[in-house]
């Protein structure tokens, strides 16, 4: 994994500021009236004349010793806001159905399999054996993988920070809102210290113990008080205050360290969502279920500051992840490898003559484990007897984390209020799914269209068809070809895309719609190319603004470009979209980024498309219904025009001698006879064998 830290990759280029401003004007043109656009042109001209050169020079100087000129500013954009990470930051994936379905306990079987495959991925990563990512033969930066496991977002009164724990050996498991942990790796050589069978048994014990504890609690309110994970869903300031109060007890501080340093959190939910909408909501924020006035849903069974693997009682599974240091394509590689590893282990069992329902054999080195029930206290055990090579022998036996309420604390109230605020947040959000099975990538490609650009235009046209408005559309384009590359924004409501949206909603015929669509496809393809090359608009201007904010004296006037209406319009993303998926995934989604917006995650597969839309109750299902019709309509228009042109092209190349023994038009496609007849009348008699000249395409 030579390019793991990006040291061998070029740095993200800082574009010329004049070029960025020119692209900025193009990006905001569809969002503004002519009058506003004139004011924006004046603001940009003023910015270029007064501020741009100085800020650009300062940015180049700032970036001299940094792997990426925008990276630190980007981290601050995630870590400084006070909003909860639920719905505002964390995306989710719904995994494809279990390739190793169990006839028995679907949850335990799926969870054990996912954990084992995740540990295989983690061990490969730590040993440096993970094959580097590449795109069209070019290596991509792997720096993000160092923050996938054993990493946590930690709140504090001074703002959030990201903590990484390189030597972590354990995972945390949540069931009924309670937390448990046990070791899963040897520290030195990064081998697994637990078999799949032993892991499955641990999970059964944890699930049973959690059920017993919650069931024996005097009241639902008492049970809620122990579910401190819900604090991670609160505003960052509230969570920071609660965490500070929680850590006043020495045992709690130790338990927080256990959770923060875990490789990841496995959430065993006690519900069985079956409908796509229901599954998506479970993975995005958890379920809402109130009993006796107290929340009991799976929204309590989360620790939102870490990578979470979520497995429902029926085996439905997904991933929810903290987004500050990792992007969707990094987590996609992880879940893809996990999916592939699961299939390979399944195949290996079959080839070895083992019943696939039987858990895999133990690894080469198993740590010792006693046979007691999960221990009541959550202290870290003293170091066990050393294993080979002088390592501390891992302890693969599960322990429950028991939180203590410090004297005089408001911890019980904090948990209660955090749950109520989360419930409000969930009730304010609506999530719907469209699993579109009419066609997919292959059919779109046959129409000479980029699948992603096709979908982007369908989203914009569907919104315009429903609301009659041209709005800002955001699509991230990865820039991992550069050191520490993340994403660049593609603002896909281009002028050509705006013309297409208007044309699509009009009574125009196929030819006009097809022409507008083709022009818009080209504009988005070019936008993607520029963004991937680091020549976008958003990241460059964002860095210039943040640098100005850091260095400007008190009371300084904001540069004209950033004070202008167009800058606010560009950053008010009504359609926040992202394409992220492959055969390992069923759904992908995230929350809206503005109050009147939509979060739209989609997956493009060979024969189908899937969309997950969320909004604050803005007719989400209706938008997806409009999108369904728009996708079919766009395909039909392109197909009809393409078929007609092929028919005409076939006729153009036909020899008149071919029709000598049969009436003109026999065996020809509909419409071609009329075109031929009209052409012959205009040209007069044709000589035998003469080919018809090409006529203008429609």
UniProtKB/TrEMBL annotation:
Compositionally biased residues, Basic and acidic residues: 389-401
Gene Ontology terms: cellular component: mitochondrion
Keywords: Acyltransferase, Transferase
MF terms in GO: carnitine O-acetyltransferase activity
Residues covered by region (Disordered): 370-401, 678-698
Pfam families per UniProt: Carn_acyltransf
Keyword Cytoplasm: no
Keyword check for Membrane: no
Recorded superkingdom: Eukaryota
Gene3D superfamilies in the record: Chloramphenicol acetyltransferase-like domain, Choline/Carnitine o-acyltransferase, domain 2
Basic residues bias locations: 688-698
Active-site residues, record numbering mapped to chain: 323
Family designation: Belongs to the carnitine/choline acetyltransferase family.
Protein name, per record: Choline/carnitine acyltransferase domain-containing protein
